[in-house]
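no rush on this but wanted to send it before i forget. theres a chain ive been looking at and ive put its sequence and its fold in C-alpha cell form underneath. please have a look and point out which stretches look like helix strand or loop to you. thanks a lot i owe you, the record is right below:
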Amino acid sequence: QVQLVESGGGLVQAGGSLRLSCAVSGRTFSTYAMGWFRQAPGKEREFVAAISRSGSSTYYIDSVKGRFSISRDNAKNTLYLQMNSLKPEDTAVYYCAADSSPRAPWLVITPSDYDYWGQGTQVTVSS
C-alpha cells in the first residue's frame, strides 16, 4: 500500500514562505504524476500544482504562478511545494496526491483522478 505523509505546514505572516514536503512509501514513486491540492474551511478541495513523473513538466493554477514551485526528488521519494509571498487567501489544509495511471498526457487536475492521498498539513497565513 502506498502511503503519503506531508510535513512543513505552519503559521506564517503574509509575505512569508513555507516549504511543504510529501514523503511517499514504496518503490514506484517515479512512475506517479504528483499533485498538490488545498482545502479551505467550507470550500471544495482545489487543485494547486502538478508535476510529471520525471519532473520535467509542471503546471500551476493562476493564483499561485510565480509564487509557488513544485518539485520532486525521485531518488528520495519526496515531493515538495515551495511557497513564497504567501497571502491570507492561501490559508488551507494542503494535501499531496499521487496518480498511478500511465496516462498520456500526464496532467490531471481533478481530485478523483488521483489514487493516493496524504493526511494533509495545515498552512495558516496571518495578515
Notes: The mean pLDDT is 97.
